[in-house]
Amino acid sequence: MSKSALTVQNLCKRYGEKEVLKGVSLTLKEGEIAALLGPNGAGKTTALECIEGLRTRDSGRVEISGRLGVQLQSSSLPATIRPQEALELFRRWNGGERDREAETELGIDALGKRPYRALSTGQKRRLHLALALIGRPSLLFLDEPTAGLDVEGRAALHRQIGRLKERGCAILLASHDMAEVERLCDQIVLLKGGRVAFSGSPSELLCQGETGAQISLKTSIPLDAAALHNCRFTGEHQGYALYRTQQLGEGLWELLSLARSAGVRVEDLRVEHQSLEDRFLDFAQQEETK
Ligand SMILES: Nc1ncnc2c1ncn2[C@@H]1O[C@H](COP(=O)(O)OP(=O)(O)OP(=O)(O)O)[C@@H](O)[C@H]1O
């Protein structure tokens, strides 16, 4: 069985009167990638930085096994330092080896001798990730790692994350990019109102609660929506009637039976399931209406 890389129990943090974290718990095993999600201001950065030890927590327990690497949401280096100098400096401070393969993959060599102030936002983020990988950490924290990266930078980072996972590195990342989360992560921890509102795999989040599907149907003449029990007519779009159903099989059967019995020709039919982003928005909206 894989070993635990991170255990967080009952993490609490307040800023003055504002209680931001009200008992957040999570665990991460080696080789596992988890996403910390939540709307703006949910406390993701606060949680990450309390776990990293960069902010003091009010209470709670944090256990980290092995070496920790961190890429902060925003960080800076001296304006005139060059990428290779920064990497050497951090290597000497940290006492570990540089990850040359990752540096090549992240395009650090191509940055040449440009000073830090002349790097673009995306180039700075790549450099900060290379710095976080010095000493081959067994646990890595990434706060919105692909923010500001171009398509190639994003793909390179995803390849890196896959490579790190393969060698057993556990990764906790905060992200707003649902496609990235769905593609990379084994686990989602969703923060809402200072607590963990959901913890599980992306597919478990998709199946939780009212999932449902949308059926788009194009017919020769409109169907009588009043006759439906398993589908709800929600409107029209580009010549298609739109229906929502919680029971896809029953809903489809009902629509097609109705069309046949009314002598209506079905010209096209499409089914769309809820996306991870839809599920995330459901959680975020529940928070707003509280
Ligand atoms: N140093 C601070 N002092 C007071 N309040 C703070 C401080 N840092 C954060 N907050 C507040 O705590 C809450 C959580 O902030 P945090 O940055 O952790 O959220 P987040 O989920 O990372 O947000 P985002 O998605 O926008 O990055 C916010 O309401 C924020 O205004």
From TrEMBL:
Q: Which GO terms describe its molecular function?
A: ATP binding; ATP hydrolysis activity
Q: Matching InterPro entries, A to Z? A: AAA+_ATPase (IPR003593), ABC_transporter-like_ATP-bd (IPR003439), ABC_transporter_ATP-binding (IPR050763), P-loop_NTPase (IPR027417)
Q: Which PROSITE patterns match?
A: ABC_TRANSPORTER_2 (PS50893)
Q: Keyword set for this entry?
A: ATP-binding, Nucleotide-binding, Transport
Key word Oxidoreductase present:
no
Q: Which domain of life is it from?
A: Bacteria
Indicate the segments forming the ABC transporter domain, all copies. 6-218
Protein name, UniProt field:
ABC-2 type transport system ATP-binding protein
Native organism: Bittarella massiliensis
